[in-house]
Design a protein that fits this description.
By secondary structure, this protein is an alpha/beta fold. Helices cover 26% and strands 22% of the residues. The strands form 6 sheets. It has an 8-stranded mixed beta sheet. Strands 8-2-1-12-19-18 form a 6-stranded mixed beta sheet, covered by helices on one side. The structure holds flavin-adenine dinucleotide.
Length: 494
């Protein structure tokens, strides 16, 4: 799997869908190991990597012991070497700052168990360690190993380094679907035509379920930044990250201070809201009152890629040449070094049969209802699900992506019915979906353009059927609008 370095090939070894945190980190790792990589990216500015706070906080996040904690701690350990390599490649500063994280408590009750036994500081010690804290602070934990990186600088460095190493980054390209034949991906359908490679990686963050039926959904986070005013006694009065019970406060060395963040289950609803910003500001001022006088510099929002159990989805996908790297939720910046190393190892398979056992805990298959029984011999620990598992398909019939039973040039093989031409002959029905949302996601993932609906389902308001007619985009699916279908159905009985 290798091409001459610094020369984008006509067909790359690996095509990565998504050029955010994971797409870029994996591209860098693979390219450095002699693989020719192309990244297809629809909107670099929308990546959660830009919106994040950049905390490297496995201890402050109070992860419980298990595969996720292990993944995060191993990634934290890699950070110094990984970031130095990136800074050397680009000659630029990433803002990496192993400053430690102070987690002050405003109430006696809120003193959770930490991953490691960090000593509990008394109120007096906490106040002397960070001047200016609220008088309500009753104690704190200090996590000396945690820290931060300037995530915007990181995104820029990864992109520059990847391009310098010869990764072909194609911006403004939307991937519309995976074309599959006999358990292999044979191409991607994109906004600029079809693309092929030997191997494919899905790294589309919060947008992942638009391409595959995996349970990744957006969790919106609103943030803002203030700046220490000129004339203040110190250019940066905060010496370390403050991780409060309701807010985090992340000081940058240049005097900027990042405040975050809301966690909202509102789909891809854009914009900052007064309520969201007020929530963050009030909590930040309550914890560190001097902030109330600092000028506000910027507001923004982003979408974390969340899974039902809040763990990432990593490793082999439903096709033999498809790898998944998504669902990093609140810890994607922290997890970039370890994710890229594990994914490169899995794809390159340099020591056959020796993939890191940790990967097993993050397989997409854990969301299959029958996974636990079929994998009882696995060493993977399955974390408890905070919501019911989504039943995708049985292992014997892996996920359908875009069915390509015929040669790839599906554009030349249109099926015309009633004057409308379809690019796929695959038909999908509306029955047996647990929700309209899952139905819509499955339509998109299947690549089908023809949907069959029983007219009685469209007309009824019975539970589970309400809103069905509105849930389907009739411009896209099928050629027979509902009203017309209803008229036709009535005629049959006349
Ligand atoms: C408010 C906020 C605060 C956060 N704070 C932290 C923190 O302090 N520490 C930490 O470790 N993590 C933090 N995170 C989480 C972290 O940012 C994410 O986990 C991480 O960025 C996810 O990386 P990703 O590559 O999966 O997704 P992204 O970085 O979102 O990248 C996905 C990319 O895929 C592209 N894409 C999507 N669909 C397609 C398509 N069909 N075709 C082509 N391209 C496509 C998108 O345009 C996007 O650029 C935070 C996130 C948010 C939103």
């Amino acid at each position: 799997m290798s091409q001459p370095a610094n020369q984008p090939a006509s067909q790359p070894d690996v095509l990565i869908v998504g050029g955010g945190t994971m797409g870029l980190a994996i591209a860098l790792e693979l390219q450095q190991q002699g693989t020719q990589v192309t990244v297809l990216e629809q909107n670099f500015a929308a990546a959660a990597g830009h919106a994040a706070a950049g905390m490297l906080a496995p201890h402050a996040e109070r992860l419980t012991l298990g595969p996720m904690a292990e993944l995060c701690l191993r990634s934290l350990q890699r950070y110094p070497t990984w970031i130095t390599k990136l800074e050397n490649l680009t000659g630029q500063d990433s803002g990496y700052w192993p400053c430690g994280i102070l987690a002050p408590y405003l109430s006696e009750a809120a003193r959770p168990t930490a991953l490691t036994a960090a000593p509990l500081l008394t109120a007096e010690a906490a106040h002397s360690y960070q001047l200016g804290l609220s008088q309500q602070v009753t104690g704190a934990h200090f996590y000396p190993e945690d820290g931060q990186v300037d995530n915007r600088a990181l995104m820029s460095l990864m992109r520059i380094a990847a391009q310098d190493l010869g990764v072909d980054i194609q911006s403004g390209v939307s991937v519309e679907g995976f074309i599959q034949r006999q358990q292999r991906v044979v191409g991607l359908r994109t906004s600029i035509g079809e693309k092929q490679a030997a191997h494919y990686v899905l790294a589309t963050g919060a947008w992942s379920s638009e391409l595959l039926p995996i349970p990744v959904s957006p969790r919106k986070g609103q943030m803002l930044a203030v700046r220490v005013p000129s004339g203040f006694s110190q250019s940066q009065p905060l010496r370390r990250v403050l991780f409060g019970e309701k807010v985090y406060i992340v000081p940058r060395r240049d005097g900027r201070i990042i405040l975050g963040a809301t966690v909202e289950d509102v789909g891809f609803t854009p914009s900052n809201t007064p309520a969201g910003i007020a929530q963050v500001l009030n909590a930040a001022i309550e914890l560190y009152p001097p902030l109330q006088h600092f000028p506000v510099e910027e507001y923004w929002w982003g979408f974390r890629p969340a899974t039902p159990d809040e763990l990432p989805i990593l490793g082999a996908g439903p096709c033999e040449n498809l790898t998944l790297a998504t669902g990093h939720y609140r810890n994607g910046i922290l997890l970039a070094p370890m994710t890229s190393a594990l994914i490169a190892e899995q794809i390159l398979n340099k020591t056959p049969g020796k993939t890191d056992p940790l990967l097993a805990a993050f397989s997409y298959q854990r969301f299959h209802a029958d996974y636990e029984s079929s994998s009882s011999s696995s060493t993977a620990t399955i974390m408890p699900l905070s919501s019911p598992p989504i039943h995708l398909s049985s292992p014997a019939t892996p996920m359908q992506i875009i069915d390509a039973p015929r040669p790839l040039s599906i554009e030349h093989d249109g099926l015309t019915i009633a004057g409308k031409t379809f690019h796929s002959r695959l038909m999908t029905g509306t029955g047996k979906f647990s929700s309209l949302d899952i139905m819509r996601q499955s339509f998109t993932a299947s690549g089908s353009e023809i949907v069959t609906v029983a007219v009685r389902r469209v007309q009824t308001n019975a539970p589970g059927h309400e809103g069905l007619a509105e849930a389907i985009d009739w411009q896209k699916y099928g050629c027979c609008p509902t009203q017309q279908a209803v008229r036709m159905q009535k005629k049959r009985f006349e």
